[in-house]
Amino acid sequence: MYVCICNSVTDKAIHKAVAGGVRTFAELQAKTAVSTCCGQCTSCAKQVLADALSAQPLVQTISWMPQLTAA
Ligand code: FES
Q: Is 0.85 topped by the overall pTM?
């Protein structure tokens, strides 16, 4: 499904970006350009990002947290 019509960003593209390491909305915007034009897709894009992040394995989610990996 298209999430962002302006930039042709799909839910699959957002899930792929998260699988590739994206963890924040700003990172998602930098990677896909989602929600960088009219902004009408922002709430939907944030929801798809949240869903994609929650679907990530716990170990992968924890590994990007610097306070847990530094030492
Ligand atoms: S629909 Fe995403 S910026 Fe317009």
A: no
